[in-house]
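The records we work with from here on pair a chain with its fold. A complete example follows; check for yourself that the lines match position by position.
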Amino acid sequence: MALALLALSAASFGIGTTEFVIMGLLPEMASDLGVGIPTAGLLVSGYALSVTFGSPVVAILLARLDRRRALLVLVGLFILGNALCALAPDYRLLMLARIVTALCHGAFFGLGSVVAADLVPPHRKASAIAIMFTGLTLANVLGVPFGTALGHALGWRATFWAVVGIGFVAAAALVAWLPRRLPHEAGSLLSEMRVLRRTQVVLAMLLSVLASASLFSVFTYVAPLLAATAGAGPSAITGVLLLFGVGLTLGNVLGGRLGDWRLMPSVIGLGFALALVLLALVPASAALVPATALIGLWGVLAFALVAPLQIRVLTAADGARNLASTVNQGAFNLGNALGAWLGGLAITVGVPYGHLPVIGAVLALAVAGVGVMAHRLDR
């Protein structure tokens, strides 16, 4: 099943690249489209909200398809959406293209997580999900820095054309390596909706919202933050994004192991650690070297939460894993939108870029608090 997990990882690489590369290109896109940086930041929020509210609808529409065919349809939608992004002549049409692209995001990661978990023994499920999400982290190591550099050199539209090419490679990998007979979970939509009302399912998704909001309240504006506080130029920002991506990759591996070991205690500990690192980033952001080191550590801790939170939802929502897993991706992206909006609002009212990590730290503490509540309910 290693090649099947690799195929899922290849697709997640493309999806991760198109989601995150916009952060490094935000100033250029804002200038080219004639809008301010906070307005351009809404492209992140629009994408995230489309995942949140559109992906469950897409998952329901594809419910009658077998999982292999459904995943291929979603990759086709991804390719179409990125081509529309590259061709969009103005801000409004680019926003529409981002919304189309995002429709595949939550449904793919939701369904892909279930497929990855079903391919391995029970004690390896979190690690299998982490392997699939490795593509997402490698997108930050390779896709985002090189996509940012390509956008700086040839214009941001060239980056989206490159992502279209990644989409075709991912589609070929899924066709070649994904098993033709995948396990199917039968059940009515009504019964699955009832499962989503369980207290532990709701708390698990709240954790996803808060963890993602903590990340994106700062990461959405990391390029102007580094430029304003540390005087970083485009090449330095690309290097920081590369290190952040390495941190995400290491954190993904760490999160898979923690999820298979002690799930909720790990989530609680990671929340507290994230808050400390983000608070330390406030004074450290004035100098490039300490800021870079802390951003790398931040990446490790932030993404170590992803696999544990995804397996938490799959465990709590037994009997409705397809829908719950997709809705949880929507929860992550609702957090993306909330975080980007909070960061943009703070900038608009005059909060310095260097103080944005305080918002992320508060949200990380909320992760730890909700984690304690859920763990006590378990016990």
User: Anything to note?
Assistant: The longest helix spans residues 2-33. The radius of gyration is 19 Å. The mean pLDDT is 88.
